[in-house]
Design brief:
GO molecular function (chain A): ATP binding
Shape of chain B: globular
Organism (chain A): Algoriphagus winogradskyi
Oligomer: heterodimer
Number of domains of chain B: 1
Distance between the termini of chain A: 61 Å
Helix content of chain B: over 70%
Protein name (chain A): Iron complex transport system ATP-binding protein
CATH architecture of chain B: Orthogonal Bundle
Largest sheet of chain B: none
Largest interface: A-B, 31 and 27 residues
Radius of gyration of chain A: 24 Å
InterPro entries (chain A): AAA+_ATPase (IPR003593), ABC_transporter-like_ATP-bd (IPR003439), Metal_Ion_Import_ABC (IPR050153), P-loop_NTPase (IPR027417)
Strand content of chain B: under 5%
CATH superfamily of chain B: ABC transporter involved in vitamin B12 uptake, BtuC
Keywords (chain A): ATP-binding, Nucleotide-binding, Transport
Largest sheet of chain A: 6 strands, mixed
């Protein structure tokens, strides 16, 4: 039985400026399930941050309510909320004197007494968080002396040590390289599964999210929130909601975003995967059509066109 | 070993404080050996009555005031730096010292500026302390009203700074129109002085500092949470609004009372928290607060000892000495490559 740890009921969200209420999101309903990593996707400025603020209880909805464990989030005290919900934010500034171990231990703040002294159970929670994120070896290192990817893992460990049922991450993979992006998202999915947590990730990384997320939430201007398995959304074409306008679409067979302008007139013969990359390169170079046919062969790589041979796509384009 | 070292350092700082205290008390126009002072204090036997007079009524209160002022200023500075997340914040960024200055300026200068009968040359220290307290409270009250209105801590910081300069401008106007005698008195006050307080005032200063430290102890955990910024602090159940009120209250009491009694003392509040961070290599406020207090007290005692120009009857104003010591510290901090990261 799937359990929803956070439920949104007909939420209308926005900001009050003076006496004017400016509504950004209208009658939004959603359920965040435990044991799943949900990715919230949507274009910039659509209200993702606003939605996250409401889920964190930092923004009072105009209408509707957010339920956390079946109780309205507004009835929680700050401390009780902190024991249920933890966050990873896009905060560039961290105190450099702090070690990774100390950073993770800060997650225990809601659980400790007024001095913040760690008890045994706190130390256990810190160790578990470090091992779940696989950064035990960094425990004594200072935050200023580790890489961006390691720092992001340390921040995730801090949120884990806070030991809530729900974790919300705001673009945890921004500024990271490809390997780290995959690694972080896989880690989050694994944590959601093994520890039964609800993890909500706000991200723009569609390709990696497709690969790792258990569920997508698509947010778009003026439409209700679309929730579903990423695969279902691809098959139904709803994923194209992310790409309004006519220029791009999501290619189902290739699993990535492509330009829509497809009436290019090349005839390319040879292995299909190679042909794809060559037409991509021609397209970028602004070449829309060629009179003759192109022949490609693998091993050794060779492009034959109008009786000439090229060993690199670049040489070929320059010769055109 | 790794775990005990912060405590070890705290013990070392405590010893430094005691040594600075003895050095401070024994130096002066007459130098008196620490042995004699200790036996005098604990047994009541003094070799000369004049020495008892010097130690008990002049040097001891001054040394205690130095410790109290050092503690008050350093702890206010640390609170401001953490709350505003700004390494250059100090105890006076919310305009407290300007406020106290305004109070004292009105007392000393306004009479002369408006041609009314002045208080004459002899303004007693109580009047100065009360005027300083009133001025500091006035500014603090206004800043609190702003803090109640705006929720953003950067706005509060800017408003505090602007307030400080506006009040300084009023003081300049008063100075411009006042007579030479009054102006000299005010200038002397603004150079700061640890001496000249009677025992009653030392007790009161001690009491106010003690009360001002209570909100700090109550919110140590919140200050640690603030290290990650307001949003993270909120997500960990810390209430930044409550912390802001406690901080305004605490720094108002600490920095306000020190300024009212001793005049504005520069640099201690900015430099000492950095020294504590550098030596203890931690950002944990459970260590930084006691460390800053101990270093602040010792540093002010040492500055005062230097200012007495050992062997001569002349003394330098304390503000000049702290600035001479503090400026190189702040400059060397700014020149360090990773200054912003070290914070």
């Amino acid at each position: 039985m799937r359990k929803a740890s956070i439920i949104g009921k007909k939420l209308s969200l926005g900001y009050t400026k003076g006496k004017v209420q400016r509504e950004i999101l209208h009658e939004l309903s959603f359920e965040l399930f435990s044991g799943e990593m949900t990715c919230l996707l949507g274009p910039n400025g659509v209200g993702k941050s606003t939605l996250v603020k409401a889920i964190l209880g930092q923004l009072k909805p105009f209408e509707g309510e957010v339920l956390l464990n079946e109780k309205p989030i507004s009835t929680y005290s700050n401390e009780d909320l902190a024991k249920q919900l933890s966050v990873v934010l896009t905060e560039p500034f961290l105190p450099a004197n702090m070690t990774v171990g100390q950073l993770v231990a800060m997650g225990r703040i809601p659980h400790t007494g007024w001095t913040g002294k760690l008890e045994d159970r706190d130390r256990v929670a810190v160790q578990q968080a470090l091992s779940a994120t696989k950064i035990e070896y960094l425990q004594e290192d200072r935050i200023s002396e580790i890489s961006d990817g390691q720092r992001q893992k340390a921040l995730i460990a801090r949120a884990l040590a806070q030991d809530g049922k729900v974790m919300v991450l705001d673009e945890p993979t921004a500024h990271l390289d490809l390997v780290n992006r995959y690694e972080i998202m896989h880690l989050l999915q694994e944590i959601a599964k093994t520890q039964g947590k609800s993890i909500l990730v706000v991200t723009h990384d569609l390709e990696i999210a497709l690969e790792t997320a258990d569920r997508f939430w698509l947010l778009n201007c003026g439409t209700p929130l679309i929730s579903g398995l990423p695969e279902d959304l691809v098959i139904s074409g709803e994923i194209n909601q992310l790409l309004p306008g006519k220029k791009f679409h999501f290619s189902v067979e290739k699993g990535r975003i492509e330009s829509k302008v497809q009436d290019l007139k090349f005839e390319i013969s040879g292995p299909e995967d190679l042909a794809g990359w060559i037409s991509k390169a021609l397209e970028k170079a602004g070449i829309n059509g060629l009179a003759g046919a192109i022949e490609v062969s693998r091993e050794p790589f060779l492009i034959k066109y109008a009786g000439r041979e090229f060993s690199k796509v670049e040489e070929f384009i320059l010769a055109l | 070993m790794q775990k005990n070292s912060p405590f070890l350092l705290l013990s070392a700082a405590l010893i430094l404080l005691i040594l600075s205290f003895l050095l401070n008390v024994s130096l002066g126009s007459v130098s008196i050996s620490p042995n004699e002072i200790l036996s005098g204090i604990f047994t009541g036997d003094w070799t000369k009555a004049s020495r008892e007079q010097i130690i008990v009524n002049y040097r001891l209160p001054k040394a205690l005031v130095a410790i109290l002022a050092g503690i008050g200023l350093s702890i206010s500075g640390l609170q401001m730096q953490t709350f505003f997340r700004n390494p250059l914040a100090g105890p006076f960024v919310l305009g407290i010292s300007s406020g106290a200055g305004l109070g004292v300026a009105i007392l000393m200068l306004a009479g002369s500026a408006f041609g009314l009968s002045t208080f004459g040359g002899a303004i007693n220290p109580w009047a100065i302390a009360i005027a300083g307290t009133l001025g500091a409270s006035l500014v603090l009250l206004t800043v609190s009203l702003v803090a109640w209105k705006v929720k953003d801590s950067m706005t509060l910081l800017i408003v505090g700074l602007m307030f400080g300069s506006a009040v300084s401008a009023i003081i300049s106007v008063l100075s411009y129109f006042s007579g030479a005698e009054a102006l000299k008195l005010f200038t002397m006050w603004s150079m700061g002085s640890l001496g000249g307080l009677v025992w009653d005032q030392v007790w009161i200063l001690g009491l106010v500092i003690f009360i001002g430290i209570i909100p700090v102890i109550a919110s140590i955990k919140s200050y640690n949470g603030m290290l990650l910024g307001e949003s993270y602090a909120k997500s960990m159940g810390i209430n930044p609004d409550r912390l802001r009120w406690l901080m305004i209250l605490s720094t108002g009491l600490l920095a306000g009372s020190v300024t009212a009694f001793c005049g504005p003392i520069a640099f201690i509040g900015i430099a000492v928290p950095h020294l504590a961070r550098m030596v203890w290599k931690t950002s944990d406020h459970r260590f930084l607060f006691p460390a800053s207090a101990l270093i602040g007290g010792s540093l002010l005692l040492l500055c005062d000892a230097v200012g007495q120009l050992p062997g001569s009857a002349q003394t330098l104003p304390i503000n000049a000495v702290t600035s001479l010591v503090g400026a190189p510290i702040v400059i060397s901090l700014v020149l360090r490559k990773n200054f912003s990261k070290e914070f």
